[in-house]
Amino acid sequence: MKRLTGSTDRRVRRTKSLLHRALIELMLERGYDRISVRDILHRADVGRSTFYAHFRDKDDLLLVSSTDYLRAAVTAPGSEAGAGADAATPLAPVHTLFQLAAANPEVYQALLGRKSGALLLRTTREMVAEILAERLTELLDMDEAEFDSTVTFLSWGVVGVLGAIADADPPLPPTEAYRRLEQLIGPGLSGRVRAS
Hints:
Elements: H1 2-30, H2 37-44, H3 48-54, H4 58-75, H5 92-103, H6 105-112, H7 118-136, H8 144-166, H9 174-190
Helix pairs in contact: 1-2, 1-4, 4-5, 4-7, 5-8, 5-9, 6-8, 7-8
């Protein structure tokens, strides 16, 4: 019976991956506003009922699947330390996000560029906020309200820098972007890290 569950999990992961890939490909071709759920289903070769078993709409697909993608990238072995960030610093996952933006500028231009809308900007901020909150929740010594406002502040800042990496001419190199962010924000966060 366990084997069947593993198989189901693989199928679900594969389906979600197909839908995510289809959405990103279509965003690059047409722009987000010109994509329908039907377009995504056709590109991914997935049925409507399967889509709605996992996602409410295309906005939910974007947020959930992209956050899962970023989470996997940030938690991959060696993702921060191997990329030039000290894994012990509170902002270490941000370096991985910056590396992804530099490696995939067309995706980040679609999310954050001049032609992206407010929905894409807010969704990207929500993705970044979730990744930051997962990282910082056990590290920072703050009450809930202060923590929430800190994550909101940081996530908007990171989104702005992601845009400078992917959509500026010339683009800001990810290592330089991380160095600047760490210089400006790192000392304040480090002072709020819980004592071990």
